[in-house]
Design brief:
The protein has 232 residues and is mainly alpha-helical. The protein has helices spanning 4-11, 18-23, 28-33, 43-64, 70-81, 83-92, 95-98, 103-107, 114-131, 134-144, 146-153, 161-171, 214-228, and strands at 180-187, 194-201, 204-211.
C-alpha cells in the first residue's frame, strides 16, 4: 500500500501535489495491466530528474573543488549519478516497496531491480523539482548524497576502498594475509546482472556489497568492511 506520508518524511518534503509523488513511482508495466489508471508512467519525470540531478551534482562539485581538473570532476560526477549510486539511494528510501509494477514485473524481482530503482530515484527528483522551489530540490539531492560527497571531500574516493582496506589490514598486522573477494550470489539476465560479494580475510567475513558489476560490488564490500572496522 502506498504510504505517502512515510515517504515524504524520509525525503523531508511535503508535496503540494501528491499525484506527482505517486507518478514518480509508476512503472510502465503497471499501465500495461491497468490502462485506465489516471496517471502516466514515471518516464517523463525520470528524463527531467536526470537532467536536474546532473546539474545539481556538477554545480556542487564545481564549487567544492575549485582547482580540480575537468576530467576528475567528470569522474566524480559519474560516480554520484551512476545507476549503482542511485539504486542504493532508492533502497535507503525503501522505494522498491512503493513502486507500482505490473504483476509479472513484480514477480520477476522488479522491486529490487537496479534499473527500476535508479529510474524511480531520478523520477522522484523530477517530481520534487516540479512541486517545490529549486532550493528545496537542491537540498534534498545534496542531503541524500551527503555521505558520498563527504568522502570525496576527504580525499577518499569510493574506488579507493579496496586499496584502503588492504592497507589497514596490513597496518594492523592481521595474520591471515590480504583480503579476498568472493561472489556469493548473482541475479538477473546477462544484460542486467546483479552481484553480491563478500570480502574475507582468511575465513573471516569482513563485509558484503552488491551492485551491477563485480567491480562495484567489491568496492561496496570493501566499504562495508571499513565501516565495520571503524575506519569510515
Amino acid at each position: 500500500m502506498f504510504d505517502e506520508k512515510r515517504l515524504e518524511e524520509l525525503l523531508g518534503v511535503k508535496f503540494n501535489n501528491p499525484s506527482l509523488l505517486k507518478q514518480a513511482l509508476v512503472h510502465d508495466s503497471y499501465l500495461n495491466e491497468n490502462p485506465n489508471f489516471p496517471l502516466a508512467s514515471n518516464e517523463r519525470l525520470e528524463f527531467l530528474g536526470d537532467a536536474i540531478l546532473g546539474y545539481i551534482v556538477a554545480k556542487q562539485l564545481y564549487d567544492l573543488f575549485p582547482d580540480m581538473t575537468e576530467g576528475k570532476l567528470t569522474a566524480f560526477r559519474s560516480y554520484l549519478v551512476c545507476q549503482e549510486t542511485l539504486s542504493r539511494l532508492a533502497k535507503s528510501l525503501n522505494l522498491g516497496e512503493y513502486l507500482l509494477l505490473g504483476q509479472g514485473e513484480a514477480k520477476g524481482g522488479g522491486r529490487n531491480r537496479p534499473t527500476n530503482l535508479a529510474r524511480a530515484m531520478e523520477a522522484l527528483i523530477g517530481a520534487i523539482a516540479l512541486d517545490q522551489a529549486p532550493e528545496t530540490c537542491r537540498k534534498v539531492v545534496l542531503r541524500l548524497l551527503a555521505t558520498d560527497i563527504d568522502l570525496l571531500k576527504a580525499g577518499k574516493h569510493p574506488l579507493d576502498y579496496k586499496s584502503r582496506l588492504q592497507e589497514i589490514v596490513q597496518a594492523k598486522g592481521r595474520p591471515s594475509g590480504t583480503p579476498t573477494y568472493h561472489t556469493i550470489d548473482t541475479q538477473g539476465m546477462a544484460h542486467d546482472r546483479w552481484f553480491r560479494i563478500e570480502v574475507r580475510l582468511g575465513d573471516e567475513v569482513l563485509g558484503q556489497g552488491e551492485g551491477k558489476s563485480k567491480r562495484y560490488a567489491e568496492t561496496e564490500a570493501a566499504r562495508d568492511a571499513l565501516e565495520k572496522l571503524g575506519e569510515l
